[in-house]
Automatic annotation (TrEMBL):
A GO MF term: acid phosphatase activity
Protein name: acid phosphatase
Reactions this protein catalyses: a phosphate monoester + H2O = an alcohol + phosphate
Organism: Folsomia candida
Annotated TM spans: none
N-terminal signal peptide: 1-18
Amino acid sequence: MRLGTFLIFVTIVVTAAALSVIPPRKDKADTDTLELVQIMWRHGDRTPIVQYPNDPLQNETLWFPYATGFEAITKKGKQMHYDFGQYLRKRYEGFLSPVYSQKEIYVQSSDADRAIMSAMSNMAGMWPPTPEDPRSEWNPQLQWQPIPIHTIPKKLDNFINFGAPCPRFKELKKEYTNDSPFAKSINEAPENSKLCQYIIKHAGVKECDFEVISDIWDTLRIQKAYNMTLPPWVASVYDQMESLSAIFFDSRVLVPTEEAKRVKAGPLLSFLVKNMELRQNETKGVAKMYALSGHDTTSSIALGALGVFDTQFPSYASAAIFEMHKIQNEHVVKVFFRNDTSVPPFEFEIPNCGYPCHLNKFKEILAHILVDGEKWNEVCKSGGSSPSASKSSASGAISTTVLPHFTSHFIMLITNLLLISKW
């Protein structure tokens, strides 16, 4: 490479880094401009949910040293959320007062015990009794105060546990886990078809696709984490099962079309936007923080609908954080994801919204998928628009929206470099 071209290349790389408008990761929020926090987290470490037919570890008493049985949060999971609550206290110090007030925070959980107990553990870390509030020190032998956790039955929950009946989404789910070109490219790949036959034989299941593999692998993963002896057949396919399991959280499966986003993510995003509007308008009775205690799909569906979630497992106690700030008299939305306790949350650049993402623009790009109440019941009716006719991101191509935020700038600059080299 000629010296001149090399210098141009170096300049382009440096300029690309400079164009990264999103600030570096940090644990402390910008509380000077912060007006509203909405956070959705996954419950803490739990015991297995699925017991496949030939599972030699189906005896529930095996889990009694760690939890109350199957599908339950473990001692480790409680500690995870207690620590996370302490983290949130530090992150929003100066925004939240040191004294608990029901006017500042509203917590809602899915109706699953593990989610409710995660929320309770989190609040114990966030709002311990303090001498600043003598009312909080109600028992000198107990450094804990009760914080309200709200919930609704699963059959009515359409935005945390997604248990409310929705016939249309059942149709869409079958399409995108079995019949779509993307699903077929995964399920019918020779190596995966061979794996499925192997799993049907050894695990005892009657059917197999990447969702079944994900469920079985999740059980095996937990058993392995607790040093239980896995059946011999697992060793040769464990890694392959792990790689396929993550596909279940790919947005091309969870929310691959605009219709799927509307049906599945619409009520959750409507909840977030409504609270932003209320806070923007300084409506009385609006909390400063809303916390949703849910599951791996809660955050992955919300982030997937925004086009920022790639193929990864939402780890225990992971969280998507939506902050609304008022900067130079303009309300802006910042979205973060915390999937690793060893590093600060990662901030996304929301596609088609720019950075910072202004609230009005945020509402504009989501307007077509925001549904709730009777409107949601209507779109949930069976026999909606054909998935193939909907605008889709379910092709085999990886979406560029999950690439680092400076990628588009960098590609443009590299293109210019290639043109310059031709000169």
